[in-house]
Amino acid sequence: MAKAIVIYYSRTGNTKEMAQIIAKAMNEADLPTECKSVSDVKAEDVFGYDAIVIGSPTYYGQMAAPVKQLIDDLVGRHGQLDGKVGAAFTSA
């Protein structure tokens, strides 16, 4: 069975709330989904999921540094992400 993860960074709680709403909707659509802070996720953790959703607040037109670091860590492993569904969201 497919499974998904919603990964987020949230300083004020707004992006966390959005992440939880997204994860809840995915679970209600019968897609088992975990919701985790980026501080609790390593790049190698995402390979066990079929869908990866990443959320970050926008600061001066940029994503939060911890989210950028995770994405940078994933770039070198792009072949391992083949066939996975990806999505992103932001708060500003």
TrEMBL record:
Residues 4-92 form the Flavodoxin-like domain. SUPFAM superfamilies: Flavoproteins. PANTHER family: PROTOPORPHYRINOGEN IX DEHYDROGENASE [MENAQUINONE], PROTOPORPHYRINOGEN IX DEHYDROGENASE [QUINONE]. GO terms for molecular function: electron transfer activity; FMN binding; menaquinone-dependent protoporphyrinogen oxidase activity. Gene3D superfamilies: 3.40.50.360. One of its GO terms (biological process) is heme biosynthetic process. It comes from marine sediment metagenome. This is Flavodoxin-like domain-containing protein. InterPro entries: Flavodoxin/NO_synth (IPR008254), Flavodoxin_CS (IPR001226), Flavodoxin_dom (IPR026816), Flavoprotein-like_sf (IPR029039), Protoporphyrinogen_IX_DH (IPR052200).
